[in-house]
Predict the structure of Lipoprotein.
Amino acid sequence: MKPFFLLLMILILTISCESENHYHDGHYEGGISFIDITWEINGGEILINNSITGTSKLRCEQFSDRIEYLEKDGTTKILYAQGNGDLKMSDLIILHKIK
């Protein structure tokens, strides 16, 4: 009886710790003409490497259809998920999923 109870408790703890969704984790690339931007999305963090402004590490929240993150200036940005796995910021900026 004790092993069954222990296994049940471990299962409950494991399930309850999965509070964050990782719908869009991966490496993305995109930008506008001469600006190269790479994005590394992992859980609740985005690491943005911009060829002009440098590297930024920001907190994000992932949903099944989008990612919301807060810029350093307080602006909320939204990346919309596309059917092929890419993320769309605007009509001009689409981040292509690399891996």
Q: What stands out?
A: The mean pLDDT is 84.
